[in-house]
């Protein structure tokens, strides 16, 4: 069975339960989950909402990142989903999870997965601030 169990870029609300269920594996002694949410400030400025956009090839890049993590760590199961479209404060923007034989490996693999997703997958964030200004961020947060 493929260790990459769930990948997606979606315009609907994300489910932590779906991601967690996808990485369930009897060979895993540790599962690490990261949930990224929309916060109410950035660089000291109040954020009111934001919008994510993705390049048409973003899902292929997400798969490439997942395959890289699966090759570098003893992953038993991996899942990653990212939201696009308009999000409100507190909404879930991204969920990644990795199961490995041991907790340390799971923590390291999930940290690397979210960091590489943020830096390598072409998803962009447009933040709307309380003063009416906006800011594009070059990679997802």
TrEMBL record:
<comment type="function">
    <text>Converts molybdopterin precursor Z into molybdopterin. This requires the incorporation of two sulfur atoms into precursor Z to generate a dithiolene group. The sulfur is provided by MoaD.</text>
</comment>
<comment type="subunit">
    <text>Heterotetramer of 2 MoaD subunits and 2 MoaE subunits. Also stable as homodimer. The enzyme changes between these two forms during catalysis.</text>
</comment>
<dbReference type="InterPro" id="IPR036563">
    <property type="entry name" value="MoaE_sf"/>
</dbReference>
<dbReference type="GO" id="GO:0006777">
    <property type="term" value="P:Mo-molybdopterin cofactor biosynthetic process"/>
</dbReference>
<comment type="pathway">
    <text>Cofactor biosynthesis; molybdopterin biosynthesis.</text>
</comment>
<dbReference type="InterPro" id="IPR003448">
    <property type="entry name" value="Mopterin_biosynth_MoaE"/>
</dbReference>
<dbReference type="Pfam" id="PF02391">
    <property type="entry name" value="MoaE"/>
</dbReference>
<protein>
    <recommendedName>
        <fullName>Molybdopterin synthase catalytic subunit 1</fullName>
        <ecNumber>2.8.1.12</ecNumber>
    </recommendedName>
</protein>
<keyword id="KW-0808">Transferase</keyword>
<dbReference type="GO" id="GO:0030366">
    <property type="term" value="F:molybdopterin synthase activity"/>
</dbReference>
<keyword id="KW-0501">Molybdenum cofactor biosynthesis</keyword>
<comment type="similarity">
    <text>Belongs to the MoaE family.</text>
</comment>
């Amino acid at each position: 069975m493929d260790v990459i169990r769930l990948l997606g870029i979606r315009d609907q609300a994300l489910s932590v339960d779906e991601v967690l269920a996808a990485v369930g594996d009897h060979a895993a002694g540790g599962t690490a989950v990261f949930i990224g949410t929309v916060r109410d400030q950035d660089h000291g400025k109040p954020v009111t909402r934001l919008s994510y956009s993705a390049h048409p090839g973003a899902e292929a890049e997400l798969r490439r990142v997942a395959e890289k993590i699966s090759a570098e760590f003893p992953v038993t199961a991996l899942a990653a989903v990212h939201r696009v479209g308009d999000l409100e404060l507190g909404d879930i923007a991204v969920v990644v999870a990795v199961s490995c034989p041991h907790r340390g490996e799971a923590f390291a693999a999930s940290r690397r997965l979210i960091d590489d997703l943020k830096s390598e997958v072409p998803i962009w964030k447009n933040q709307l601030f309380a003063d009416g200004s906006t800011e594009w961020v070059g990679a997802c947060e």
